[in-house]
Design goal:
heterodimer; A: 113 residues; mainly beta; 5-stranded antiparallel beta sheet; 0% helix; B: mainly beta; 46% strand
């Protein structure tokens, strides 16, 4: 079983749609969780950290379910500029050591006009 | 502005040749990392370093070597022992004590064997 699993997609949605991505992780001791965005042929960029209580940043909402080892990302009112690959990222270690983030393979999103 | 600089952006390697990818950061980050990304796949860790003059193997270290002589610099050498080196190579850095910050990535080096 992969350490971090994501539905690869692709997700093709119209502008203005709401889309949700899911991710599961295998290490129950994982400490930190992130969503990264990667544009075609570019480096990944941090979209948002994911906190136990859930967190929101504008149109983006991230949720964590430790019991089910499940992370989600919800994008509301999709824009053309949201088209990218979204990477689910998990850190199995606490602060104080070099973090070896484990990356999912990504979910590809295309927002259509 | 602080950031990570990778060079070159594109690199072509002949069979049997060693090549070195540069990674420099001015973020005063403690830890640095090298990842490899193949098309349609996730990032795989090659090497990482927490402090100067110390580094650890990641999941796919065979055929690669690194050094960390300065805090700011973490070059990666792709040796001739790496049989399938064509990939997108990403360098990243982080503050060890700031778990919620994630990594900062450089813009990557695209290596092709010719």
């Amino acid at each position: 079983r992969k350490e971090v699993e994501q539905d690869p997609g692709p997700f093709n949605v119209p502008e203005g749609a709401t889309v949700a991505f899911n991710c599961t992780y295998s290490n129950s001791a994982s400490q930190s969780f992130f969503w990264y965005r990667q544009d075609c042929r570019k480096e990944p960029k941090l979209l948002m950290s994911v906190y136990s209580s859930g967190n929101e940043d504008g149109r983006f909402t991230a949720q964590l379910n430790r019991a089910s080892q499940y992370i989600s990302l919800l994008i509301r009112d999709s824009k053309l500029s949201d088209s990218a690959t979204y990477l689910c990222v998990v850190n199995p270690k606490a602060s104080g050591s070099a973090r070896q983030l484990t990356f999912g393979s990504g979910t590809q999103l295309t927002v259509l006009p | 502005d602080g950031g990570i600089t990778q060079s070159p952006k594109y690199l072509f390697r002949k069979e049997g040749q060693n090549v070195t990818l540069s990674c420099e950061q001015n973020l005063n980050h403690d830890a640095m990392y090298w990842y490899r990304q193949d098309p349609g796949q996730g990032l795989r860790l090659i090497y990482y370093s927490q402090i100067v003059n110390d580094f650890q193997k990641g999941d796919i270290a065979e055929g690669y070597s690194v050094s960390r002589e300065k805090k700011e610099s973490f070059p990666l050498t792709v040796t001739s022992a790496q049989k399938n080196p064509t990939a997108f190579y990403l360098c990243a850095s982080s503050l060890i004590q700031r778990a919620a910050d994630g990594y900062t990535f450089g813009s990557g080096t695209r290596l092709t064997v010719v």
